[in-house]
Structures are given as structure tokens and as C-alpha cells.
């Protein structure tokens, strides 16, 4: 019984440790008369944060996360 619990615990730990978060690169561009230029790049590993950045885009300032 004790051995099976240890084996299940070990399998669970290996499974969770092999899961990697999907990170995205978020790029902020600003448009102007001379064209668009990259103002900032961030590595974002939280889906909500990436969505919030994209939602904050307004006017000529645009966030794109890929």
C-alpha cells in the first residue's frame, strides 16, 4: 500500500513538472506619420495578462501577442 502511494506520487510529480507554461511574446507598436515602430517587447506567460495588453490597444498604439 505504501509503495503504491509513493509510485503514484512520483508519477504525479513527473507529470506536473513536465507541463510547461505557454509563454507569448507581446509586442507594442506605435504608428505615426513615418510608419509603425516597435516600442516594447515582453515575454508574457499569463494568458489573462496577454489578453489585457491586447485589449488596452487604442488609437495608433497596438499590442499583439503571439
Main attributes?
2 helices; three-stranded antiparallel β-sheet; alpha+beta
Explain the layout of strands and helices:
Blueprint: H1 2-18, E1 24-32, E2 35-44, H2 47-55, E3 61-65
Antiparallel strand pairs: 1-2, 1-3
Radius of gyration: 20 Å
What's the order of the H and E elements?
Answer: HEEHE
Number of helices: 2
Measured by DSSP, the beta-strand proportion falls in 35-45%
What is the approximate shape? elongated
Structural class: alpha+beta
Tell me the quaternary state: single chain
**Order of adjacent strands in the largest pleated sheet:** 2-1-3
Number of strands: 3
Helix-residue proportion: 25-40%
From the N-terminal CA to the C-terminal CA, the straight-line distance is 47 Å
Mean pLDDT comes to 81
For the sheet with most strands, the description reads: 3 strands, antiparallel
Question: Could you name the ranges where pLDDT drops below 50 across 5 or more consecutive residues?
Answer: 4-10, 12-19
